[in-house]
Design goal:
Largest sheet: 7 strands, mixed
CATH class of the largest domain: Alpha Beta
Domain Bacterial type II secretion system protein E: 87-279
Radius of gyration: 21 Å
Shape: globular
Organism: Deinococcus soli (ex Cha et al. 2016)
Pfam family, one: T2SSE
Family: Belongs to the GSP E family.
Number of domains: 2
Low-confidence stretches: none
Strand order of the largest sheet: 9-8-10-11-7-12-13
CATH architecture of the largest domain: 3-Layer(aba) Sandwich
Mean pLDDT: 94
Structural class: alpha/beta
Distance between the termini: 61 Å
CATH superfamily of the largest domain: P-loop containing nucleotide triphosphate hydrolases
GO molecular function: ATP binding; ATP hydrolysis activity
Number of strands: 13
């Protein structure tokens, strides 16, 4: 069957309203996530979709092989190159007998870290030849976009071999000073842990891991960082200070002490970020940056992760609440919005009043 909704019209509308996601769900009209909020179209131009229409739209973006595989999978991730928009990332899932899909347009242009709202000092972390750099935050925090910016900076400034491991590939790169290879799960490897282990035989200088989802992947990442590679990976955490405990807690209890030692030796830093709705529309980046100094490494090694946030303050590292306060002071975001995202409301107010 054909659908009454055209994929071009959907993506055109998403581009026009700067939606980060387009959600298609059988029994509902298409919804668009704009500035973090999910809403229907303003013009009500899209009808309620049947299950068959959702399937038709999804299959229109798939290869024949992917369309066949869809019938045997409960969820499916893929990305499709589109001459009009760039790449479109699609996540398909089943809810009972119904299909739903989340579409995300990946821009062709990769912004510099400063254009994203991060400080130039972030680039200093990339001068390390080995170790682990984490990009953390909740879902839809711009982590993939930040990683793309970091990769592009390395590509433009250093003669390295960069290997990315993704599910699916989102941003694409042209090799410049660096040589870049991109692997996609499960096309090129069964899973992240297998790809990270196998990557060492490809002699990369930099390994980028799309997401550390399980113990085996985290263990492989720590091993790669320990054996002379710069590893950049994402992790879901609520703060930069929480990243260490989040990693160690994945390990069985009898392996956690060794994991703390490995992490203390390999961690370079943590960039934690969130996207905050702006007064004028769009979203601003709030961030904090943990640099793994001697005090941080000692805290990790001695299982004193609860002291890391205070170490960051003492060392004058960029703190999340300070970033929020600056966005409020410059009238980029409203104070009531900032308060919804604070890590510590009193600390936020102290930063806000200190200007």
């Amino acid at each position: 069957m054909t659908s009454s909704v055209n994929i071009i019209d959907l993506l055109d509308y998403a581009m026009n309203v700067q939606a980060s996601d387009t959600i298609l769900s059988a029994g509902h009209t298409p919804r668009f996530r704009v500035d973090g909020q999910l809403r229907p179209s303003d013009t009500n131009e899209f009808p309620t979709l049947s299950n068959e229409e959702v399937q038709h739209i999804i299959e229109g973006l798939m290869t024949e092989e992917q369309a066949r595989e869809l019938h045997h999978r409960t969820e499916f991730d893929f990305a499709r190159e589109n001459s009009r928009y760039g790449r479109v990332r699609v996540h398909v899932a089943r809810t009972g007998a119904r299909l739903m899909a989340t579409l995300r347009i990946i821009p062709r242009d990769i912004k510099d870290v400063k254009a994203l709202g991060l400080p130039e000092r972030v680039k200093d972390l990339l001068k390390n030849e080995r170790g682990l750099l984490l990009i953390t935050g909740p879902t839809d925090a711009g982590k993939t976009t930040t990683i793309a910016s970091l990769i592009q900076h390395i590509n433009a400034t250093q003669y390295h071999h960069i290997l990315t491991i993704e599910d699916p590939i989102e941003f694409t790169y042209e090799s410049s000073k660096s040589l870049i290879h991109q692997q996609e799960i499960p096309r090129d490897a069964a899973d992240f842990k297998t790809a990270v282990r196998a990557s060492l035989r490809m002699t990369p200088n930099v390994i980028v891991v799309g997401e550390m989802r399980d113990y085996e992947t985290i263990r492989a990442v720590l091993s790669a960082a320990e054996t002379g590679h710069l590893v950049i990976a994402t992790l879901h955490t609520r703060s930069a200070a929480e990243a260490a405990s989040r990693i160690v807690d994945v390990f069985p209890s009898d392996q956690q002490e060794q994991a703390r030692v490995q992490l203390a030796q390999t961690l370079i830093g943590v960039i934690h970020q969130q996207l905050i709705p702006k007064i004028t529309g769009g979203r601003a980046l709030a961030y904090e940056i943990l640099t793994a100094n001697d005090a941080v490494r000692k805290a990790i090694r001695e299982n004193q992760g609860h002291t890391i946030a205070n170490i960051m303050r003492t060392a004058n590292m960029p703190m999340f609440d300070k970033s929020l306060a600056f966005l409020t002071q410059t009238q980029a975001i409203r104070e009531d919005v900032a308060m919804r995202y604070t890590h510590d409301a009193q600390e936020y107010r102290r930063y806000f009043m200190s200007r």
